[in-house]
Amino acid sequence: MSPVVSPLGVPNVPWCPSHIPPAVPNVPSEPIVPFCPQCPCVPCCPLAVRAVPNVPLPSPVSLCCPCCPHCPQCPQCPHCPRCPHCPCAVPAVPSVPNVPIVPDVPIVPSVPVLSLLSPLSPLSPLSPVSLLSPMSPVSPMSPLSLMSPMSPMSPVSPMSPLSLMSPVSPMSPLSPMSPVSPFVPIVPFVPIVPDVPRLAHGGAIATLIDTSLGTLALAVAGRVVTANLSIDYLAPVPLRSVLLLEAFLQRRQGRKLFLGCDLWDAEGTTLHAKATGLFIQQDPPKEAARGGDSGR
Ligand SMILES: CCCCCCCC/C=C\CCCCCCCC(=O)SCCNC(=O)CCNC(=O)[C@H](O)C(C)(C)COP(=O)(O)OP(=O)(O)OC[C@H]1O[C@@H](n2cnc3c(N)ncnc32)[C@H](O)[C@@H]1OP(=O)(O)O
């Protein structure tokens, strides 16, 4: 079998465990800080969205990562020792010339992504938990709790990975047939209950994948629902690992959008899961409908 290499060429970056708060209930969450998904400083900011090939570097970069106050201008980036969130010394990552980062699209890091899809939520319409977790937000079984990078007890934190999973605005003019879309969330899974289990829950991974593919489908075609989701779990996902999800549109047939994704570890060496999803466009624009659904 040929070695698995991420198409994005994710560098071999050590994970900084100091970013993860202890998985102890009732521990106050870290202060909420805005997150700059344009920050290429993965060691300082493991939530940073990785570079996307063939997408030009936004100029000027308007957002500045609070994890790295000098980013991206700082010559010490991406291993800035002044990063207040990264007290540990992280080896320098070889600079990768001509590797652009995500396009300068509107970012709403503090808006929980899933809340927009949750008209049935009995909870706050802004709560991302409302769709993800029929259980208590602080339930140990909550998939969101497993995935919150900042505080397992703060599933509604704007730092929730699920609120960071849309670097591409739905308004972004993505090419519907683009084989690789600039949608690359990086999601840390953290435990809420010490010791059990040590692996990320498959359902949480499915939620991550469904939401990621759904976000891409949404960016391409507007309102969609998942009709089919197929996941191959290839390798267990350890808790506290950082993941890279690469989603792409495979083809589009009328209302049907066939998407796929690969879920990698942060180094791009281990392929944890592969998935395909079928999303059905809801209420397509009239002109699109008139154009005929030749894919039926
Ligand atoms: C400014 C702020 C910016 C912030 C940025 C944030 C933005 C991001 C926001 C948020 C992103 C998050 C995204 C999350 C996404 C998650 C989505 C979900 O989880 S949705 C819940 C789970 N899904 C359901 O509940 C569906 C339930 N099922 C249905 O509603 C229907 O069955 C539906 C719509 C799927 C199909 O029903 P029909 O009547 O509309 O259409 P028919 O004719 O049956 O199917 C259309 C075509 O699809 C095929 N099809 C349907 N289901 C299929 C299946 N399971 N497998 C294969 N083909 C299927 C059919 O064979 C047909 O194909 P032929 O046109 O004939 O070629």
TrEMBL record:
Keyword Disulfide bond: no
Taxonomic superkingdom: Eukaryota
Topology within the bilayer: Peripheral membrane protein
Localization per Swiss-Prot or TrEMBL: Cell projection, Ruffle membrane; Cytoplasm; Mitochondrion inner membrane; Mitochondrion intermembrane space
GO CC aspect terms: mitochondrial inner membrane; mitochondrial intermembrane space; ruffle membrane
Listed CDD domains: PaaI_thioesterase
Name of the molecule in the record: Acyl-coenzyme A thioesterase THEM4
Species this protein is from: Geospiza parvula
